[in-house]
């Protein structure tokens, strides 16, 4: 494809995406086809000769789009949002066009330096503690996901718990990771990958009402382990748990970690984005105790997957834990000690120029534009919660500090399951569920860029109407 052919095909692809976004509200939120329908529509093998982009776009319409779950649909209320936006797509397009590898500063100086500055910009926009800024020992890096951030934090924490010997001796003692029973499954996965074994994670009980980690139980678990010869390595606290957006109490958890020399990682994958709004920073109280922190701009901050922002208070121990230096990567800039080589801050070697999409997003919307998006999600969730509260057939299950509302029909689980299945079957909205203290609970997470009052009201009217027919 010549640059001129690319220009023509590229315009057509951008037009296709713009038309897709403009038509979202008219589409069913989820695919209506059975398993295998998309694969059955594709030829058995690749074409022998090349085809024009127009043919591919026609098949996108015919084969791919009907097989999609439309995460940007204004009626998408499932899981947590996975935002994208025009500036994010354009930043990603430039990144793809440049094809730069940012593993070392020397393989992509601008890739590295723009990333450092973007993470400092984000830290400023969210008023994160000074210890995470690149001016001192700390700094930020983009990981592909919050799961990877947790894995990296786990590896550094074990390295620290081993007195800096982990990179030589591996896991030579029984180390423990503590997280709440409500924490994301990525904590358990990280501990398993780190080689801590099935006993590597201790799930700390939560307060039955708030669903937040109990500091009393955490302290007891750490002390019991120490007495038994197990080395407490890491606490993963969550700001905005996946099920219900519960907030673990960092002001109490932080001092326990400090007292016992345990690494504290704070996972705010979804809810962290809210901190661009000064009035929504309550979840970050006590964050100054954290050794590392992450949130996903790719969830609620108008930045397409993949973009997890991960900060550490001490990048030296992170690099010490992860660096491996083969001859073919040696270069004068790295040896000068004056540059960051982000390959040492992550598991893979190679890395894309992901800071570009953050740069495009931050410059297009400005901090005020991002605040508007977050505030709209929080207000729409409150609007929906008001409807639930006012209807005695329903109950709110947990508080809704951000954009997620957890609710259910009073009584047994069965009607709630039927309700979810029926409203999702309508194709107009998509919600998911969880269990809170064993009870089947519906989750409505607001945050898709096009969602407005009318869509939340439609979701409520549908739920209210269908509720009459279940049970
Ligand atoms: N941590 C929390 C609290 C989450 O809610 C999620 C996903 O919803 C994750 C981690 C995993 O995020 P990622 O897909 O970026 O790994």
UniProtKB/TrEMBL annotation:
- Annotated GO biological process: amino acid metabolic process; carboxylic acid metabolic process
Classification via InterPro entries: Aromatic_deC, PyrdxlP-dep_de-COase, PyrdxlP-dep_Trfase, PyrdxlP-dep_Trfase_major, PyrdxlP-dep_Trfase_small
N6-(pyridoxal phosphate)lysine modification sites? 299
- Look up keyword Transferase and say if it applies: yes
One Pfam family linked to the record:
Pyridoxal_deC
Give the keywords, sorted: Aminotransferase, Decarboxylase, Lyase, Pyridoxal phosphate, Transferase
**Name the record gives this protein:** Aspartate aminotransferase family protein
User: Is Lipid metabolism among the key words of this record?
Assistant: no
Q: Cofactors per UniProt?
A: pyridoxal 5'-phosphate
**Which lineage?**
Bacteria, Bacillati, Actinomycetota, Actinomycetes, Micromonosporales
